[in-house]
Write a structure and sequence with these properties.
Chain lengths: 313, 525
Amino acid sequence: MFAYIVRRVLATIPVMAIVALFVFSLLYIAPGDPAAVIAGDQATPADVERIRASLGLDRPFLIRFGEWVWNILNGDMGVSIFTNLPVTTMIKQRIEPTLSLMILTLCLAITIAVPMGVIAAWKQGTWIDRAVMGFAVLGFSVPVFVVGYVLAYIFALELDWLPVQGYTAFSQGFFPWLENLILPSIALGGVYIALIARITRATMLEVLQQDYIRTARAKGAGQTNILFLHALKNAAVPIVTVIGIGIALLIGGAVVTESVFAIPGLGRLTVDAILRRDYPVIQGVVLLFSFIYVLVNLLIDLLYTLFDPRIRY
Amino acid sequence: MQRRSLMQAGFAAAALPAPAFSQGAAARTLRVIPQANLTSLDPVWTTAVVTRNHAFLTYDQLCAQDAKGEIQPQMAEGWVTEPDGLAVTFTLRPGLRFHDGEPVLARDCVASIKRWARRDPFMQVLSAQVAEVEALDDRRFRFRLKKPVPLLLLALGQTQFPCFIMPERIARTDAFQQIREPIGSGPFRFLSDEWNPGQRSVWAKFDGYVPREGAVDGLAGGRVPRLDRVEWTVITDPATAASAMTTGEQDYWEYPLHDLLPLLRRNRQVVVEQRLLDGTYGICRFNTLHPPFDNPAIRRAVAMAVDQRDYLRAVAGNEAGGWEACEGVFTCGTPLANEAGSEVLKTHDIDKAKAALAAAGYNGEKVVLVAPGDYPQINALSLVTADVLRRLGMNLEVVSTDWGTLIQRRASKETVEKGGWSIIHTTSSGQSLSLPVFHLFLRANGPQAWFGWPEDAEIERLRAAWTETGDAAESRRIAEALNRRAMEVMAYVPLGFYWQPSAWRRNVTGVFKSPVTAFWNMGKT
């Protein structure tokens, strides 16, 4: 197992290298010029050129890429073209809201979606099953921002129960933190809940047909035991896989959710950086997201062994 | 049930931490939704409006414009011009200090002026006549001039690209490099450790600030800080920003979206008013390098089809007083505003424009109009022009992109087949169109001109003549000649102007009319 983990961690290195090359190349060929953004309308072309030179943007691709890779290997993600702040500082400022949002959404989604899927499978063909599947279709179909606006309208504007926007750091208290994140998490969690509920239902339906479930029933095991102890554990591998894949959904959804609820997270940092062509920030954040995604998938692979002892690495 | 009571009931057992501020402190903090994200702190390095607004909080000016546009002393106690006009000596007010506690000295002003002069287009025009700027002692510095420069004070006190004073050690930074320390001598201190670009920027009252005596008057007069803190929170989504204003989570919204103004006006706790003194002007710019718009007659034909009202409704709606047509090149309501030769802009007739287009020899050349989808106002202007061009029967391709891509593409001098462009739109503050010296779109010096690169010796001659005249009547005459010639050259079509109101909670006091969003003199009850 240890050797497997080491192999997998080492395998992330070429993946990250490819991502780095891809991101850097994409930004190099993409249209847009930070020097023009900085210089503004009043600047002459010569001014823009001088700013571009001062930022080192006039140097050849390979030199810039080589320097960037060398700095990354030395733990330096560069400095934002606009703010003059190190990219690592900007990421540190923004990572807590995004992680908070994602973790809360994840907890919320798993807590709601797995029981929903299990119950839908158990009550297959009944109104409960149809209601769960109806919700799943709704969750997939309604965009995150629409859910966000509706929630904000009802719970913030009409009922005045929760704030419309913003983020309070965890260090300032659990409840103020939670108060700001409830609505964004529900909005972001909708599609995720739908995804997990559907896959849980489908997998549970398959497992519930297995002989060992019939045996458990014959032995007089209780319904709850059958569903959550025997069936769910055996259905866990595809569910955990979907949860892992869904992290990408969360990352994408966080960008929209953070904009709707004005949460100062990495999603908004990415969008702002893209709009301004702040290359070091874009590169840093995309690399970080890729790393998180690779790491989550490694974690998921390791979790397989917990749920299915037949899987060995 | 209210939010607070729900939370209290739900979490009664939990020991909630103390709030970050007492109620009194909250009452002395102004929570602002700025027009954009503050990403750069150097007002010389970038011309972004949001950076300029930050600079008005953090830095001070030697002189500043009052509500009538006249230049008044600010940090300067006053100035003396020698009888021959070849030297102007400024004296600083006593007791001025930077936020690091150091006194403001004449040499700080000299270094700041020199750095700013390298980037400000207005001062660059005047610099040819400046022999030297030198500190005479701690409180006095002097401009030595090669010949009298009547516009010197206007350049130093302008609002478009203001000359802010920094400590000499910071102002020595190259004008094309960004400064690292935002230390000024303005009424508020920038709190760097609380700066989270894209989310929050915070200023605290500078206790060592010595305001000028007298009531606030535009950007002149006493810049008295009446708030302990000013906090900017970036809310990119306009609907969320409107909700935050409605619930009282924010106190001041600099640029509310026009579509949301009726919603805000319905809330009794929110005031929506025109605070900014200048309107925002729409500009439709032609690329004069390539067909079909290398032909002035075709440019004029398009202008004949333009009705500014269509554009302004598209941006600012039908609200009374929300916009006004302005069919000349200079800012309406300013001394140089005129409509000499503007008949072509008053045609407003598609059929006549079609006939003019045919007479001009339009042969179906492709027209590429680049529109920024992420910039609602400029996108709206672009779409109206697209409609006009279609109705004229022009061979149009609309390229919808983001602003970042547009500002790079507009620098391309290639043909449209090779990634160039034919028409772009932008907006400009009324300030920057009020005088020929900083009227960007009036420049016609070919490769050095603003994107579109028109070339016209007569416009350049008139502009140079204007900078040298000190006589009001002559200045006006030149402005009329400029307008007339601009309508013949038609390097751009003026699209009129719309007002950008601001919104604030009713308990915000001391809001004053000004050409920029400034926060001194303001308080909360």
